[in-house]
Amino acid sequence: MDYSLQIIGNYMPLFLKGTWVTIQLSLLAILFGTILGLFIGLGKMTKQPLINLPCNWYISFFRGTPLLVQILLIHSALMPLIMKPPNVFVSSVLALSLNAAAYIAEIFRAGIQSIDKGQMEAARSLGMNHVQAMKHVILPQASRRMIPPLGNEFIVLIKDSSLVSIIATPELMYYARAMMGQYYRPWEPYMTAALMYLILTLGMAYILSKIERKFVYD
After folding, report:
1. What topology in the membrane does the UniProt record assign (predicted)?
2. Which span out of 44-53, 93-102, 144-153 was modeled with the highest average pLDDT?
3. Crossing angle of helices 187-212/5-45, nearest 10°?
């Protein structure tokens, strides 16, 4: 196998630039996806059909269709209605956030429903209303159980961010494909991109293990 470090060196500034965009995309999608996922997860657990049904449809749609299709649909069909011309970075953050929110909503729902119903009844008997009981009793306990699956979802999100290269978002995979197109050599660009994604996911796994050890096991 003929492996050239020189062309990797030539492209390294662009790889680093793409890695920084990948980090920004992932962090923003994690932030917005977590906030949206919390509200959708709570909405799915309500007994009000006007709130429950849209939340169920949302989760079913974003979990039941490919992320690649969602990215193309949002960038090519939805964003032109809001922004002209559509910005690829905004489209990417929106698509990744909406997709992540569907999975995170299920994590929140499962975490909250894993808490014994007696906890809610005890909180209500102390004079708390439903919102106060959720805020002060249920969510603090449930959040500990949510940390491991949320960590897995965040790592998956970093890897899935490579799909936004299809709409020419200048992230890590975009520059790997550009390098492949320029030199017609598959090993150098794709192995470099794989190594950088590995560093990002291992870094995220390390941070999450620290958080998990602090909040779950302490």
Report:
1. Multi-pass membrane protein
2. 93-102
3. 40
